[in-house]
Amino acid sequence: MQFNSHFNDIAQSYLFSTVAQKVAAYSAANPGSSILRLGIGDVTLPLAPAVIQALHAAVDDMSKKETFHGYGPEQGYDFLKESIRGYYKSNGVELENDEIFVSDGAKSDIGNILDIFAGENTVLVPDPVYPVYVDTNVMAGRRVMYMNATAKNGFLPMPDDSVGADIIYLCSPNNPTGAAYTVAQIKEWVYYANKSGAVILYDAAYECFITQEGLARSIFQVEGAKTCAIEFCSFSKTAGFTGTRCGYTVVPKALTRGGMSANKMWLRRQTTKFNGVPYIVQRGAAAVFTAEGQRQIGENIAYYRKNAKMIADCMDELGIWYTGGKNSPYIWLRCPGGMSSWQFFDYLLQNVQVVGTPGAGFGANGEGFFRLTAFGSNEVTQEAVQRIKGLLSK
Ligand code: MLT
User: Fold this and answer.
1) Listed residues 291, 306, 323: the one ending a domain
2) What distance in angstroms lies between residue 65's CA and the mean position of ligand 1's atoms?
3) Cβ of residue 296 lying under 6 Å from some atom of ligand 1
């Protein structure tokens, strides 16, 4: 027997686990210290009232013989897929119900989707990058290539004909940099993928933070994307489901290679390895798309935007270069004083007990950068920016 030796090729611990361990060690050594967490992008507001109401009603359904639900369809209930379809339609995208697969979150699907790809496929990711794209492929032994995302290209790398890859990851609005592609830029990616035969895995988890006209909310807003892309989305950031767990993946029927259908393979994969998201959770998720649900989650997103502005204003005041925060909940800043990103992490933790995420954890191009999230409470964010200002304006 042998274990999968590719695990030797990834970091010992997942980025956010490493950060959590360091914070726990600091906390144990400094009991009673008030630590402000702007590291992992975890929401802090409770679920919207419309969602809570739907969850309660669904719990009651489970208490009665006539409305009890056992195993559901692995790919999600029609009532939720219908709502998701309606949402896409409002963005000008027509989908069929069986192109939508409900899951327990985008992160799981982003990892699981690799089951339908050949092991020898090569992978192209931006650097910096959400570590899940890299780690899941390295675990499977795939070769990963990087494209530079730097201040020079606005952290939005564009296709390069000299680089051939089979699987391309795009995340827009981007985690960690907050940069977002325009529809026109996504058109270039779609053209490139269709020409080369590559498949784009498009992570749209932060779509709800887009404010600017002309930015892509879905890759399927671009004609031709259905023959080259799979899209992942989630209720985590949109509606505060980080602890409730629900997301969805769109696998178009038109996406085929070598006579094989991605949609059919993903259905086969999900029906074999997944028993679906709980009925109760799917009822809660469907409530997000009601008029009341949309209004309420809109208020929550506005609340987080206020935090992003507070952090951005603080950086402006300190003269620290940053990007993001406008169409994204993340502020990506250059570490002051030439500090490395882990040095700056320690500096903030030790001196003002503020936790962020070191850019180096997202790849080589992240060195010297740092990510702060807008998902804290208004009060914690306010306090964190005060502490950061106090420390860095000295
Ligand atoms: C992050 O902080 O990058 C996200 O919370 C990670 C995730 O969504 O899995």
Assistant:
1) 291
2) 39
3) no
